[in-house]
Amino acid sequence: MSKEKSDHVYGTLDMLILKALQTESRHGLGIADRIQQMSDQVLQVEQGSLYPALYRLEAGGWINAEWGTSENNRKARYYKLTAAGRRQLAEEMEHWARITGAINLVLTRA
After folding, report:
1. What is the CATH number of the domain that holds 17?
2. Which of 7, 8, 34, 97 could form a disulfide with 20 if both were Cys (CB 3.0 to 4.6 A apart)?
3. Which domain holds residue 69?
4. By the 8 A CB rule, do 84 and 63 touch?
5. Domain total in the chain
6. Which of 45, 43, 18 is nearest to 29 (CA)?
7. Contacts of 13 (CB under 8 A, 6+ apart)
8. What is the b/e burial string over 49-80, where b = at least 16 CB atoms within 10 angstroms of the residue's CB?
9. What is the rounded distance in angstroms from the CA atom of residue 70 to the CA atom of residue 58?
10. Which pairing describes strands 75-81 and 63-69: parallel, antiparallel, or unpaired?
11. In this structure, which long-range contacts are made by residues 67-72, counting pairs with CB atoms below 8 Å and at least 24 apart in sequence?
C-alpha cells in the first residue's frame, strides 16, 4: 500500500476515534462500541487496529489518556479529546466531506 493510501486509511480510523471521543472520555472497548453504534452496527474496529491508532493519536497530542475504573470494576485507560484533537476532528470532517462529495460526483456522472 502506498504512503498516501496508508495515510488515508489511518486518517479515516483516526477521524472515527476522534468523533467517538467528541462528547466524553471512553476506554478502548467503549470507543469501538461507540463507533459500531454510530454506524448502525456496520463498522467494527478490531483491537489490532484500535490500540495502535490510540497510541498514534496520543503521541500526536490529539488525545490524552489516564487510568480509571470501567463499568466492570476493572482498571482501564480512558481517552479524552484535547483541544488540538477537536481542531483535527473539524479538519478531518471537512476533508472527508470534500473527498466523498467528489467521489459521489464521479459515481453519479455518466
Report:
1. 1.10.10.10
2. 34
3. 3-108
4. no
5. 1
6. 45
7. 45, 49, 50, 53
8. ebeebbeebbeeebbebeeeeeeeeeebebbe
9. 20
10. antiparallel
11. 68/27, 70/27, 70/29
Q: Which residues pair with 48 in a beta bridge?
A: none
Kindly tell me the number of DSSP H helices and DSSP E strands found in the chain: 4, 3
Q: How far is CA 49 from CA 19, 55, 74, 87, 105, in A?
A: 16, 10, 22, 23, 31
Residue 21 has phi, psi (to 5 degrees) of -95, 5
Distance CA 41, CA 58 (A): 26
Does the predicted TM-score (pTM) go above 0.70? yes
Cell (9 digits) for 109: 456522472
21-65 tens-digit pLDDT: 999 999 999 999 999 999 999 999 999 999 999 999 999 999 999
Query: Any idea what DSSP says for residue 26?
Result: E
C-alpha cell at 34: 461507540
Evaluate whether 62 touches 88 at the Cβ level (below 8 Å): yes
